[in-house]
Design brief:
Length: 327
């Protein structure tokens, strides 16, 4: 009797387990703006494979590259509401949605990429993750995005005066409009996917980005002047939709978390290599790269932007201070 009962219980348990196993198997759709072979793409694909393998197919992620699932601001909304399950997002277009992340779009906030890593990998990075989670996004690791500089079809930029009158594409965030305005240029917020055509047809004169994006997007074919201002160092997250995350068992959450951390390690390593290779490639193609001797002039021009920002967001001032004080 005793044996029979436990056998029955075991069978019922097995059936339940099998059922739970099937019911819990999910297909995940992942958003990625970059093309094949880009460091972020390789890292996202590694993430997807590792998650599928380690969960033995309970989670089956697919990464959709090249922004085919939509422009970044829309993809952020879709991930927030669970229509997409995971993504690699830049914190630039995140600002209008998650206000605290606007801090990361303040020009010249970080002294260097190393400074940014130190901040984001520590307690302050956790504060940004907490802010994102209030908006339906679980940030599991931070990718590198180098530093952004201006490029254009007209001339080398050496001083803020050289930006005057240029139509410059920016990512979707009012802070970048203020940034370009402060330099006397005309900012045009525009989706990444439209920039190449707009440069070629003269709708815009320039844009700003890191070497790998300048190269992989082919913008360098149209804009022959790349001027190293290094005005923005913006981290990027590997984010999971909170709706998708909350459905996972703690064990599967751990697998996903570890895969995201490893993906970031891969991304950062590939990033360093690709930055160098991209610079070489664009220079070989005839792009004229100039170092900006006096970055302090550009920094000084950003002072009013900081003042307005702190006035409008007094609660975020301590966060800015904490970042500045991280050494
Ligand atoms: C790249 C970022 C990507 C942005 C793009 C842009 O990795 O997320 O969408 O810049 O300028 O560097 O829109």
């Amino acid at each position: 009797m005793h044996i029979r009962t436990s056998l029955r219980a075991a069978l019922a348990g097995a059936a339940l387990f099998a059922f739970a196993g099937t019911a819990a198997a999910v297909d995940w759709r992942g958003w990625n703006i970059h093309p094949e072979g880009y460091p972020n793409t390789v890292a996202m694909e590694q993430f997807a494979e590792e998650v599928a393998e380690k969960t033995e197919g309970r989670i089956n992620p697919t990464v959709y590259n090249g922004g085919v699932l939509g422009a970044q601001p829309d993809a952020i909304e879709q991930t927030r509401n669970g229509a997409l399950d995971f993504a690699n997002f830049n914190m630039g277009p995140m600002g209008p949605i998650v206000p605290a992340t606007n801090v990361l779009s303040l020009p010249f906030l970080f002294d260097s990429v190393e400074h940014m890593h130190k901040v984001m990998d520590g307690e302050i990075g956790q504060r940004f993750s907490d802010a994102l989670s209030e908006y339906g996004l679980v940030a599991l690791s931070w990718f590198d995005s180098g530093s952004r500089s201006f490029y254009n079809t007209k001339k080398p930029i050496k001083t803020p005066q050289d930006v005057e009158g240029l139509k410059i594409r920016v990512m979707n965030n009012d802070l970048y409009v203020q940034m370009v305005d402060a330099l006397g240029g005309n900012a045009t917020p525009m989706a990444y996917g439209e920039v190449f055509q707009s440069l070629k047809t003269g709708v815009i004169d320039g844009a700003e980005n890191n070497y790998p994006s300048f190269e992989s997007s082919n913008h360098y074919e149209a804009a022959k002047y790349y001027s190293i201002t290094d005005h923005l160092i913006i981290p990027e997250c590997l984010c999971i939709a909170k709706a998708s995350w909350d459905e996972l068992t703690p064990q599967d959450q751990e697998i996903v978390r570890q895969a995201a951390v490893r993906a970031a390690e891969t991304q950062r390593q590939l990033w360093a290599e690709r930055s160098k290779a991209s610079r070489e490639k664009v220079e070989a193609a005839g792009v004229i790269v100039n170092e900006v001797e006096d970055k302090a002039m550009f920094q000084a021009a950003m002072q009013p932007l900081y003042e307005t920002f702190v006035q409008e967001n007094p609660d975020l001032e301590p966060l800015i201070m904490a970042i500045r004080e991280t050494k």
